[in-house]
Design a protein that fits this description.
The chain is α+β, with helices and mostly antiparallel strands. The chain contains 2 helices and 8 strands; from the N terminus they run αβββαβββββ. The radius of gyration is 36 Å and the shape is rod-shaped.
Length: 155
């Protein structure tokens, strides 16, 4: 009988040890979630100053820009113009990415749903020769200023 009791005790200890070992080997899992919002980075063109020295010559100035986004985005670029009825509004063109007059003076250019990526280019200002107008003397001596406003928004 003692042997039977020892056998039962040994079997009980084996079951207890087995259940402890089984508990150590149980598996589980959990999730790691990372949320990344839409980002837009912009390196805007610098201020441009053009000096017209001869009325018969075209004048150009270029400033680089970079737009990077990890999501699609919308672009709006607006020119206020050089004032109402100013002949410079007809003589100046704004070229972007080599597209002539993409942004007409005093107007707005918009592009929606631009794909994610990095876009590098130049914002170019071209002033046609003043002499090409009907009467170039209507552009009086002085400083003329247009403000270009851009808005780039992630979708």
């Amino acid at each position: 009988m003692k042997k039977f009791g020892v056998l039962i005790l040994a079997a009980t200890l084996l079951l207890v040890v087995s259940s402890v070992v089984m508990a150590v080997e149980k598996n589980g899992s959990f999730n790691v979630t990372i949320n990344v919002p839409g980002f837009v980075y912009v390196k805007a063109p610098s201020d441009l100053v053009l000096n017209i020295e001869k009325p018969e010559e075209e004048v150009r100035a270029v400033s680089p820009f970079v737009v990077s986004a990890n999501t699609s985005f919308n672009v709006s670029i607006e020119s206020r113009g050089f004032g109402e009825d100013n002949v410079l509004n007809e003589l100046v063109s704004y070229n972007i990415y080599g597209v002539n007059n993409l942004l007409p003076v005093g107007d707005v250019y918009t592009q929606n749903g631009v794909p994610a990526g990095t876009y590098r280019g130049n914002f170019e200002v071209v002033v046609k020769a003043l002499i090409d107008t009907d009467d170039w003397t209507t552009v009086g001596a002085g400083e003329y200023r247009d403000t270009i406003t851009f808005t780039i928004s992630a979708n």
